[in-house]
Amino acid sequence: MLVLLGIRWLAPASLTEWMTDPARDFVTLTISVIIESLPFVFLGIVLSSLVQVWLPEGFLLRRLPKNPALRRLSISLLGVLLPVCECGNVPLSRGLIMSGLTVADSMTFLFAAPILNPITIITTYQAFGWNDGILVSRIVGGLLIANLVGWIFSRHPQPEKLLTPGFQEACAIDAAAPRTGRLRRTFLQFSSETSAMMPALFIGAGIAGLIQVAVSRNILIALGSNPLWSVLALMLLAFVVAICSNVDAFFILSFGSTFLPGGIVAFLVFGPMIDVKMLALLRTTFTAKTLVQVSILIAMCAATLGLAVNYVL
């Protein structure tokens, strides 16, 4: 991040003057997504390294309930202790899988933690208070959807097939590595995760910037007063803008007078779980087939939640 800020500070003002407006918007939006995500990605990588190298073997697993449903519920609430947005939870989830947590349980943590972390809850409350049930719907809806995803994928007969061959190989190498030289292992783990995450982050940020330039927000806003289209439009917006869950409530607050509450809830639940940048990061760990299935499942759940808020509350 310091390098990016340094380049921007040292670069002459005329550097971008030759660009067209859409090209300048693309560069600005892409860099803003990277700068916003980078601290959390590095924090997630650090936490991932600590979990894998410094926690005693089986430390976390021994303290989790044996009952699968209670275990997934406990894992979802880990987000309360970890103020990390969705970007940082990807490397942390990889570390949990390497430490022996099941793929389904790691998915539950991955999708619940960005919504149940304390910063997200506080910023959502500051933005909306208790109005229209948005805060409660976000917390309860996110918790239920994450546990539903975990339960469904826990039924998979071969959970290792949900992972990419490259990540399966990394898990095997980590399991066979000697448990000595913790500092050296921490450095190697940090280096390995950084190499896996950074290209995915840059690609995801670039795609998010490109789509934002191509899709007119005026079209999305025009759909805001319809109970169904307001939900679908804001889910699409959440997918495109790829904004951090810790600050997304303030972003969508400006749309509060245009869109119905169900659309706001769908945005706040769907975005932290699935967006362009997240898919690029998740592709380092999960197969394309798994990501398609997860995306469809979460999209259907978020849309149902948004419609329920619009029609029931």
Major sheet summary line: none
Q: Briefly note the structural class of the backbone.
A: mainly alpha
Q: Would you count the extended β strands for me?
A: 0
Strand fraction equals under 5%
The helix-strand sequence is HHHHHHHHHHHHHHHH
Give the proportion of residues in helices.
over 70%
Q: Report the principal-axis shape.
A: globular
Termini Cα gap: 42 Å
Question: Can you walk me through this structure?
Answer:
The protein is globular, with a radius of gyration of 20 Å. It has helices at residues 2-10, 21-54, 59-63, 68-76, 86-98, 103-116, 118-128, 134-154, 165-176, 182-214, 217-222, 227-241, 248-253, 261-273, 276-282, 288-312. The chain is mainly alpha-helical and 313 residues long. The mean pLDDT is 83.
List the helices and strands and how they pair.
Elements: H1 2-10, H2 21-54, H3 59-63, H4 68-76, H5 86-98, H6 103-116, H7 118-128, H8 134-154, H9 165-176, H10 182-214, H11 217-222, H12 227-241, H13 248-253, H14 261-273, H15 276-282, H16 288-312
List keywords for this structure.
313 residues, mainly alpha, globular
